Amino acid sequence: MSISETKTTAQGLTYQRVLLKISGEALMGEQNYGIDVDVARSVAGEIKAVVDLGVQVAVVVGGGNIFRGVSNSAGNMDRSAADYIGMLATVMNAVVLQDALEKLDVHTRVMSAIDIPQLAEPFIRRRAVRHLEKGRVVIFAAGTGNPYFTTDSAAALRALEIKADIILKATKVDGVYSADPVKDASAELYNSITYRQVLEQRLGVMDASAISLCMDNKLPIVVFNMRKPGNIQRVVSGEAGVGTVVGF
């Protein structure tokens, strides 16, 4: 789908099935570590508002708030082992988000790329699609199940597997800027940008593998500010001026 194209469903929504990518850090709130339960509840409330519109919602959550395999906290640990620990952290976050959603009476399933039957279903593509069709929120945990792949890549892969209309990349800023807006007050906010510009300018929207996968399969991305209440609903309703659209 090109930047200029939109698809309106019978329900008046621009996107019927979406994949929401949330970083683990987003669940920390103002803490330095772990999960802020109030933030998890707030995120769950935002997701519920979209589900109530009839949108099918899948979620990929990161694990950086607990353990980031590629960070200094991994020390001299083997990269593969560290990445597996990071995958387990995403399962923990997924279960927390599931609990927050179910307390709002939103039917939710956690599906893991690593076999943990006591906590999550194994990821099976057809089963995931069926859950979505039944109105359940599906939270994908444990990344791709393979080391050396980020949760950004997992988000792109899962979005394509379930045939999502778009990836919603939740961030702490209003979209994609020409530079870090925290360090550069003159940084320009883009309303839209191409995949190639993201890669060539190294803008850090998602990792290069994820961007390339989306580009090859024409899967659009919207980067938006998760901290502004109602933004997810505005995106799926096609409201202009919310975040940055990444496409062709």
SSE blueprint and pairings:
Elements: E1 17-22, H1 37-51, E2 56-61, H2 79-102, E3 108-112, E4 121-122, H3 125-133, E5 137-141, H4 151-161, E6 166-171, E7 192-194, H5 195-200, H6 208-216, E8 221-225, H7 231-236, E9 244-247
Parallel strand pairs: 1-2, 1-6, 2-5, 3-4, 3-5, 6-8, 7-9
Antiparallel strand pairs: 8-9
Helix pairs in contact: 1-2, 4-6
What does this structure look like?
The chain is an alpha/beta fold and 248 residues long. The protein has a single domain, classed as Acetylglutamate kinase-like (Carbamate kinase), CATH 3.40.1160. Helix content is 32%, strand content 17%. The chain has seven helices and nine strands. It has helices at residues 37-51, 79-102, 125-133, 151-161, 195-200, 208-216, 231-236, and strands spanning 17-22, 56-61, 108-112, 121-122, 137-141, 166-171, 192-194, 221-225, 244-247. Strands 4-3-5-2-1-6-8-9-7 form a nine-stranded mixed sheet, with helices on both faces. Strand 1 (17-22), helix 1 and strand 2 (56-61) form a beta-alpha-beta unit.
